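Sat 14:20. Reprocessing the chain from the morning session after the first attempt stalled halfway. Input below, unchanged.
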Amino acid sequence: MAAVWKWSLFLGILTLLHPSMPESTSTDSVTIRGKTYGSCNMVELDNNFLHVVTCHGYIRFPMRGHSVASMNAAIDRILEGSQHVNANSSCPQIKMFYYNASAIMFMRYPDFEKTGEVEYDDSVAYWIGNLEDKECRFNPFPPKSQWTVLGRGFNQTEFEKLTNQEKLEKKAMCKPRTWFYNLHRNLFLSFPEHSVDSQNLTHSGEGRMKCPRYDDPLQEDPIKCKVLKENCDQQRVNYGNNVRSFINQIYEGHYIFSKFSVNNIMVAVFRRMELTLVKDYINGQLNWYDLLNVNEDHCFLRRYREDLGEQLQVYMLPDLECQPLIEVSGQRKTFDDIRCQLQRIQGLRCEVMPLWKFYETKLKRPMI
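Finished this time. Tokens:
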């Protein structure tokens, strides 16, 4: 009887704290332009962490042991519990780039829709976040003083009002949303090429006086970039001026992109490359465009929670760089695969917080 009473009390508290949990957090599929995408096969993605970002910080979430629905529900709860973090500070746009196996580079740039607001900041800056021991919680960004400023961000209209001299003096960066980070050269780049050295912060390139042609983000594959080095610039990919679908990440030829689903809800969709082609792709025998004719395997990964401050991008990384993004059970192991397994940290670094424990934390007292 006591057990039943405790469970009833728990359900009552759950209802009070979450009177209207969106159905989308537990959905197993999404429909886009008449095509339905089923949930991703999370067993294949066991090695990975999903990184979710707001303007105030990020979440690093272990995908192992989850379905898409349970992963998204847990991430949503963390976002809900972080609404008070830096709530009174400015809210810029954020992009994520691969830096190394244990760090992500975050680039901050202005939200041009907030021009004129008291907290508006037009700076473009980056900060490198160490991912070690950051799992399963909201990790706030440091204050602005700890970010490295690259220049000032402008939309195309305001950029074209500047004289060439003003563009140089202000270190003007047009359409910062389209910029990307080149791992091999340690440069932030736009196209036509305008580069900013991440170390000495010098601006160069013939594109300094021009705006990028496209409005959507550009990306590079960091794994292919490490192999091909000087040739990795050629792997920049975009969908043109397509605001309804844009690429967030490319990694080993697999990519994540954001799409508008029904009712203009933004979702993250994962495109899985045919695994037999990954090696040829990374070694440069195939380029990304060669793969467009291959049967595409898309799946639903996440619905963005803009109502909780989430920005429209996610980033997926394996626990160790030597691990593939996708691992299929029964796949024959090479010597390198075995060596990587020996390096691997056994088990999860953190356990997903049980629901009852989450509410204990939120209520600041034990459940009865």
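Residues 30-356 form one domain.
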